[in-house]
Write a structure and sequence with these properties.
The complex is a heterotrimer of chains A (about 550), B (about 400) and C (about 325). Chain A contains 24 helices and 4 strands. With about 550 residues, chain A is mostly helical. Among the domains of chain A are: about 80 residues, no CATH class; about 300 residues, no CATH class. Chain A is globular. Chain B is built from 15 helices and 8 strands. Classes of the chains: A mainly alpha (about 550), B alpha+beta (about 400), C alpha+beta (about 325). Chains in contact: A-B, A-C, B-C.
Chain lengths: ~550, ~400, ~325
Amino acid sequence: MMATGDWLDLRGWVDGLVGWSMDNVHDALPSKDLDLTVTISPPKGIWPEDILLGRVVNLQDGFADMQPGLEGLFSATMICTVVFTTMMLTMLPIPYIERKFIGRLMDRLGATTTLRSLWIGESGVTAGKWWNQLPFGMGAPIGWLNKTLNSIWGNDHKLDAVSRVNNRGYHGYWFLLPGFFQAFADFTKFAGKEHIVPKDADRPVYEVAPVIIISTTVLVFAFVPFGPHFYVSSPELSVVFMMAIFGVAPLGVFFAGWASNNKYTLIGGMRSAAQLTAYEIPLLITVLGVCVISGSFNVIEIVDFQAEESNVWNLFMLPLGAALFLITMIAEVERIPFDMPEAEAELVEGWWTEYGGMRWGLMFAAEYQRCYAACLLFALFFLGGWEAPFQGTMESLPIVGGGLEFLLALIPGIAWVLIKAWALFAVFVWIRASLHRVRTDQILEFGWQWLLPLSIVNLAIAMFLRVWVWDGSWGIVAPIVMILSGVLGLVILVVDEDKEALETMRRPYSTYAVTKAYPGRHPDSKLEDLQRQYTSYSAVKAASSVSLSDTEAGS
Amino acid sequence: MLARSSEVRIMAEMWISMGPQHPMTHGLWTLKVKVDGETVVDTEPDLGYIHRGVEKICEARDFTQITTYCDRLCYASANTWSHSYIYAVEDLLEVEVPERAEYIRLIAVELQRIASHLMWLGAYGPDIGNLSVMVWCLREREMMMDLLQELGGSRMHYNFPRVGGVKRDLPHGFAQRARAKVSLFLNRIQEYEALFDESTIFLIRTQGVGYTKPEEMVNHGVTGPNLRAGGVNYDIRTAHPYSVYSELDWEPPVERPSIKGADCYDRYRVRVEEMRVSAMMVLEALDKIPRGADTYHAPGDPAILGKAPSRAPEGTSGSHHFEDSRGESMFYLAGGGEGRGKMPYRVSIRSPIFITIPYASKCMVGYKVADIPAIMGSFDPCIGETDR
Amino acid sequence: MSYHPHGTPSFRNLVVRPMWITLKTALRTVPFLGKLKFLKSGYHAQPADMLDPETSRRVGESHPSSGQKFSADRETSQLMPFVERPVTVMYPYERLDDLEPWLFVPGNYNGRIGVIWETCTACKQCVRACPNDCLHMTSEVRVNVLDTAEEGDDWHGFGSELEVGGLAAMPREDFHEIEEQHDLVKDHTSAPQQYEFAEVIDITGETATVNWMDGSGQQDVALSSIKPAEEDIVSGRIDLGRCMFCGLCMEACPFESFFMTNEYDGMSGFTREDLWMDADRTRVLPSVHKERVDMELAKRAKKEKAKRERKAAKAEA
């Protein structure tokens, strides 16, 4: 599995470090044979021969036998730790983006608090007004610029108390990113809360549900590569495993909804189970399409395929697949518009209403981790992972290509992956702020009736492209055709407007209430039909036995 | 077909209590729903959680003091309720109101109507799932609250009308600020509409949901925007004109529902159009007000406060039907109470939502649990007036 | 029209329109981009001046609002008046009194009760008008309004005389400074202590022997330096826990002594008794106070003058 080069070679460094330290240990051990044998010469009458106990031990050789295993253990532990820490730290911007961007979209935040320019410090002080130190007053224009920008975008306020409130740097990193560590504060708060179990809750199931959810979510990140050499493990079927483990969490959700002994959570759990199951299948088929087009089930190979071999991001080759992946992932992570299981309007918090303290905190974290995993996977599958946009093209430019290649090599791959993932998360947030909640039966209808056939169509396109069009490269026609078809499809959809429906004010078919609603009339209950005809149990029995004999006679 | 009767069971029908404290119920009342899976089979509303005994309290207050209690009936739409009461008192005491005062009252009432509908819209969005629109509607409502604050002296309970007129005249510069803010608001309505009418998800959530037939509504006594959504052109401001509504050029918005009746979308549409109509009315009233919108009369000036007796002898009674933001509100006052008639003998309040809630609960049967907030929210319940 | 011109379920309405509208809103919060024309929706919007002519005349040209166009929730920066940004007033750190309350909390606001105690005659109209029974009578030592006129004022000399056994009040040295520096927002626990009260023990010639009420003993003071004071029943003790700020008491007062000020601060406490505001906690702005005192003084002194003239005319006749 050759991957594109990147100077941030975590695996190599860790392997090298561990190997070096193991070699040092090996060399430090004594290389001479240690004679640990003991010869017991029993008296001739009891035993004829000498008894040889113990053996010759060579510490160095013994260690050399153990060395590969030890190296594997230590490097795996270190890589796991580093990658896990990276995952957690790079997840911190996710709630930050959510909070700040949604504030903007909802017109709640102002320019003064969030957009802080790098050159502007608190109350106009920036690194001690360094421009004043420049000779001949050369720094004056910089000072003027600083003052101007500070008064427009910065924190200066004529009231000291307001400046103090504006400069909430203690919750951010100095002047940058105020409110960044709110997530830490939140989790500390959750950790300190009491663990309450409802009285009649199904205790074992109640306790195991968050365990399932959080553990399966974190396990996904075992195979998510942040860079070409920045991953925990990369087996051949990593995509299969990731999708499988991603799909276990609905089970935990269902457990949580049932075990809480709460009608609301039960409804929420049912909805969630139905919705997540319904959207697993288009998701898997879409991912299958990506794997087909890339020729492998290994994530790194998929990214390499986009980076090295095809030089076109899968987004452009499979626009339909990308859209499907996006939609199904939003449904999988239960964000608006597919928010029904935890719809605040009816179900308070949905299936996690009864959880408090750290269990809720972990499940809340799990929701954002699944979002993050979804964004990362989208970035890896469709957006070329750790490759810069137009990297191949830029590097092959005639004159500046070499320079660009050098500059691009300076940026580690993880930076691109993260930028793409975070940008995609901003799109998630944007969708959340704009759209309404779709009703559960409409969600299911959408999933089964529309997304499943479309995903199969996408798979067919992927198969067609891989089998008939791919011959070592895409050529020039295929990408252009696919991009144009995607754009054309989008344009057609966007411009679509049913003028006739507007004039006749016709309503969409699926929302017609087919049966009239009035008290006592329940369209789905056959029993009530019967009960309207018969008034007693025996009458019902008699009626059904009549029909039983009918069917017997008929069959 | 049913094979064996011993296995006939009702699957998972359970009563859910959307209890007094619930994010959706727009006030403190209990809605018990019987669900079969996700389908609503039966409902049972339970009112009275914030009954404060306003009608009884008013028997011990004189007519000027009762106005303060009427603001607090429906706190989201305070001006409409205090004006509803004042017209009833003026009917009881047979008082002439100067025309300028009527115009000022109209401006206050219509501004309050806009604010009330904005509050409703700001709560309806999150019910359906859109969180942004709540903040936007409240942002616009702030403008209306500012105007009402200038007029009445506080942001929510203004105690604005007096028997025979109003408390104060339009403040200095009110006309200019009101025109600016109302124009800006008319500007921004388009954006809310974009997030609602031009959002497919909203359309599929509200169209075809919560059908109400107009004849059933008339039989039941539902009035206001809920009735006009059903196609019945009944607006008390045009049907039995009071104040100076007949002098302004306007028309109540009435929907043309489908054959099945009015759904949530129709009720939403009516209220948005009502906001527009009210805004235009305010602008027109500011132009047409006698003696101009920029003249200022001191409080108590006969131009804004007519003479009114303070006692209502025994045997007299007065009532008035008023178009509140939510329907028809009516006050009935019987004179001859304590203080030799200074206080009413009986105050009876008709609340539109008290009449509507049982009907609305009936409407929910047959739809999904997820439709409950959509349907309930579209009727715009305000429990303050329901429980009194 | 009844229906929206684009109100159909379609892909455009599924994704494009809602997301575009929210993005426009977010872009409006960005300083320079926010002013672009295409981000503003077009119809009915006419730019309006921030202040009407009357208020601009009162606040003057140097006020930050001069020259700005009205925008419901934006402020333009000082340096570039055409650059708008959303503004949040950081209450309670940033008080609106600094930013001229008349703009944000208009003069008609039903705020905290303010009473001009000098002019209150304890007629009980306010007590009767209150729907919630939150006003009670107390008594207070004060200087009658007719006695507040200084020598040389128009209405001087119509008040009462100092008597032995009565009360007297001496204005402190920093009489006017106390009044000006009295910060209504923060010093809401007591009134500006402008007078020192004392009991009059003896009057001989031009000096009076007084016993100070703050316990500092007897002292001889010049008669011209003290004014007569009295212990009056006044409408005191407003129970703010019951008050609903309806303003009926203000309208009921026939003597222009009862107001609702613009203040929304200074009314908090930890117990119910803390919310009982006595006379010393219901002061109005010094300028308003002075204005009202002068008005009432003129009114009553005129009446007193007319009464004395009538008495003199009758005595002559």
